[in-house]
Amino acid sequence: MQELATEGKNPHDSIENRDVRALTEYMTVLAMDGEIYSVTTQSGSEYRVDAIEGRCTCPDYEYRDDVEECKHIRRVRFATGERSVPAWIDVGKIDTKLGEHVEGGPIIVASDGGQLLDSATDEGSRPEDCECGDWNEGLELPCWPCYRDGHETPAQNE
Fold first, then answer.
1. Does the structure show a pLDDT above 60 at 21?
2. What is the CB neighbour count within 10 angstroms for residue 94?
3. DSSP states of 34-53 as a string?
4. How far apart are CA 156 and CA 139, in angstroms?
5. For a surface tag, which of 4, 11, 97, 116 has the fewest beta carbons within 10 Å of its beta carbon?
6. Is pLDDT at 148 greater than 60 in this prediction?
7. pTM for the complete prediction?
8. Cβ 71 vs Cβ 25: under 8 Å
9. How big is the CA angle at 114 (ends 136 and 84), to the nearest 5 degrees?
């Protein structure tokens, strides 16, 4: 989809229409119980997404056999950082509220080496689920929760 591409984009890179809509349409993702999310769309419709099972209550997911992930499931995956935004995407065209209402958001991570493009992380604060410890002692690798929240080094290196 050219409308999301930055200049000089690799012509072999592509993104599905549902990904484009998940990234550009105004949607609010709110965490509920566990990995269940409420997704409210720009039209005001509300759907429930089970992020573990990969299910959604929208008609697109429920009634189309060829749909593995609807735009709501994809939005949850982008908003929570489970799925990275491709590096060649023009970040200025993405919904500015992406990930705003989920823990650790808003954060947009590029897939090319995980370069942080945009984050609202407070410097010095670590996520509650930080797992930095013995496994990465002496390494310059943060645990996933710290990386997801925009920290480039492990907690013990600060």
1. yes
2. 21
3. TTEEEEEETTS-EEEEETTT
4. 10
5. 11
6. yes
7. 0.63
8. yes
9. 120
- Asked if 114 contacts 120 with a C-beta cutoff of 8 angstroms, the reply is no
Alpha carbon 70 to chain centroid distance?
15
CA distances from 94 to 4, 50, 80 (A): 8, 23, 15
Residue in this structure with the two tokens 């689920």, named with its chain if needed: 129
Task: Please report, as a single letter, which amino acid is at residue 102.
Answer: V
The token pair that represents 152 in the structure block: 């480039």
Looking at 59-149, list the stretches that DSSP marks H as alpha helix, in order from N- to C-terminal side.
Answer: 59-63, 71-79, 144-148
CA separation (Å) from 45 to 72, 80, 132? 11, 20, 40
**Residue 66 identity (one-letter amino acid):** D
Please give the single-letter amino acid code of residue 151.
H
Q: Read off the pLDDT band of 13 (50, 70, 90).
A: low
* 19, containing H or E segment: helix 17-24
